[in-house]
């Protein structure tokens, strides 16, 4: 894995964390942690520009970020006893294939 993809994945993981934090934060400490996640996410995303074209980095960042956020939401629903929406899973897999396809075509 090259450094650009590493930074994009790291940023997308922290994007998932801060999106979750914005939804569930109740205290000042939780908001502070969320702000730190935002900073790490954006710094990682900007660091990816040194190794990837901006269009590729942006597409990967948004694709993986969406994948991680929706996957976390699906898992949370599942563990809370809600049923899994298989059509939603299908579209998440389609998104993942598309994002990985963009990365594969670029190489």
Automatic annotation (TrEMBL):
<dbReference type="GO" id="GO:0005886">
    <property type="term" value="C:plasma membrane"/>
</dbReference>
<protein>
    <submittedName>
        <fullName>Chaperonin</fullName>
    </submittedName>
</protein>
<keyword id="KW-0812">Transmembrane</keyword>
<feature type="transmembrane region" description="Helical">
    <location>
        <begin position="29"/>
        <end position="49"/>
    </location>
</feature>
<feature type="transmembrane region" description="Helical">
    <location>
        <begin position="56"/>
        <end position="74"/>
    </location>
</feature>
<dbReference type="InterPro" id="IPR037185">
    <property type="entry name" value="EmrE-like"/>
</dbReference>
<keyword id="KW-1133">Transmembrane helix</keyword>
<feature type="transmembrane region" description="Helical">
    <location>
        <begin position="86"/>
        <end position="105"/>
    </location>
</feature>
<keyword id="KW-0472">Membrane</keyword>
<dbReference type="InterPro" id="IPR045324">
    <property type="entry name" value="Small_multidrug_res"/>
</dbReference>
<dbReference type="GO" id="GO:0022857">
    <property type="term" value="F:transmembrane transporter activity"/>
</dbReference>
<comment type="similarity">
    <text>Belongs to the drug/metabolite transporter (DMT) superfamily. Small multidrug resistance (SMR) (TC 2.A.7.1) family.</text>
</comment>
<dbReference type="Pfam" id="PF00893">
    <property type="entry name" value="Multi_Drug_Res"/>
</dbReference>
């Amino acid at each position: 894995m090259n450094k650009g993809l590493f930074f994009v994945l790291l940023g997308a993981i922290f994007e998932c964390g801060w999106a979750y934090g914005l939804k569930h934060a109740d205290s000042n400490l939780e908001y502070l942690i969320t702000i730190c996640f935002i900073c790490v996410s954006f710094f990682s995303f900007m660091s990816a520009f040194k190794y990837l074209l901006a269009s590729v980095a942006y597409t990967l960042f948004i694709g993986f970020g969406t994948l991680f956020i929706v996957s976390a939401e699906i898992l949370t629903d599942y563990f809370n006893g809600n049923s899994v929406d298989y059509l939603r899973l299908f579209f998440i897999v389609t998104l993942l294939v598309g994002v990985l396809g963009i990365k594969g075509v670029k190489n």
